[in-house]
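Handoff note, outgoing to incoming analyst
You'll be picking up this chain. Sequence as last confirmed:
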Amino acid sequence: MSYPLSKLPVVAQPAYVQGTLDTLLSADGSVDPAALSLRDTTFVVLDLETTGGAPDGGGITEIGAVKVRAGEELGVLGTLVNPGERIPPFITVLTGITEAMLAPAPPIEAVLPSLLEFLRGAVLVAHNAPYDVGFLKAACARHGHPWPQLRVLDTAALARRALTKDEVPNRKLGTLAQFFRAAVQPTHRALDDARATVDVLHGLIERLGSFKVHTLGDAIEFAKAVTPTQRRKRHLADGLPHGPGVYVFRAADERPLYVGTSVDIATRVRSYFTASEKRARMSEMIAAAVRVEAVECAHSLEAEVRELRLIAAHAPPYNRRSKYPERVVWLKLTAEAYPRLSVVRALADDDAAYLGPFSSRRTAELAAAGVYDAVPLRQCTHKLSVRTRTPACALAELGRCPAPCEHEITPEEYALRAALPFRTATYGDPEPLVEALLHRIEALAERQRYEEAAVIRSRLVALLRATVRMQRLGALTGIGELVAARRNDAYGWEIVVVRHGRLAAAATSPPRLHPRPTLDLARATAETVLTGPGPVPAASAEETERILAWLERPDTRLVETSGDWVSPARGAARFTTLLTRAEAAASRRDSSVRSSVTDRSDDARSLRL
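Most recent structure output, in case you need it:
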């Protein structure tokens, strides 16, 4: 039965008071609604009466909504709704709403447009909000209305956090309305319950002040389930700067517990004291922390680098990554008549060829196995003599080693066939190694030995990843000084001075001013960097890679360099596509070994073409 909206039984309301612009701005405006004080926030307090079933797009029998701001009532919407189904007798007994009352009422699809317009620009408040929101979302979905993604505040959840059981025995609306001496007591009718919830909301907002909850965002987070420790330590986030930098959680003995970075230190640290932080290790860390120290930085790159250096210097117990940058290993081609590969922990200033750095010995050994599959390098650890023969091992009998121990190969031929391909791959073209491994993969795949082919593929990935990484690092660390800048609309120009792959200075020039004076000052005060051997002579590989990622952004401009930033034309970088596809195939758990290996065979053929 139709029922025109013009005849809806809407309660008389006072003149509507238009909100100021800043209270209506969305996240892309000048004011984030979550940052508004609770006094300046517009709330729509809503209550639904239903037939008692599950939310399925129907079942709503009555809607009551009251719009308030700063304690003042701005508008009211109240109407019965025809649910299109019978009302259970117990619902009639509970609410007093009969089928005769609902027969002339409009269906929910006729009411939704008016309700959604009433909710526009406001925060939805309800007691046990998930129940009411669930019915409204289902109704919108059934009748083709997009859900407006409203911010929702649940007075029941707020009461659970703000009130103790000594004050109220439970968090029912009737109990809370009586506790806060609401002007209207709930009657299981939508508008009466909504008005009662308004008084409960105002009473709770008064209580929130003692918890230092003053904004809408704080109230939403406060309503979520946080631990007592998080709530007690929330003050640690007070007074921190809103800007890029590093934050350090410290224990009572000033020992760093955890180091992190963010483009907004204050906002990030506050998140540790909200329901979004669910990591057990972080909960343990927060319990031990007594203060948070902030280190403001010029921009995000400086913050990332300072974070890495602080973690490396202090090894905070609650940081998992980047704690021990010195614990890297290298593959070294020894300098002897018949060279071999050795896993070493440090670079020496010698003429030996090195490949790395590797984060673990296991990864280095995997890459070494790939080299052994590609070229006839000896795998024994004996020191061989060009004059005295040594008995051969089983690898020589299997044809896996040219037996230099028995002088079956001359030092010159061994250097050409075995050592030179590896040495060249570290600074130039790794194609001989790559081609040999791809041939092995193809041969094994053709014989349907897919598991063995997958093992060779993993060795190829480890070897290629190391050569690509080392040549990228070496291209930057070989430059004595590089100055670059990136435009930041909020702060001006972000400026970096990089020396041998190490961040020597960082600055931000003010907006609307020429960046040259700031740049010159940064260069004049930049750190003096002493170089050393290898592709990472002055910083950790991770720091140089962070700088590389920043420099390679399309909006970064190179200002000055003391040398050429170049990579070999036939270097490892030309195999980046193959490496990416091989890594993706290896990580696909839903694909068979056979399909991923044959994918690599296709890559090999396309590279040769």
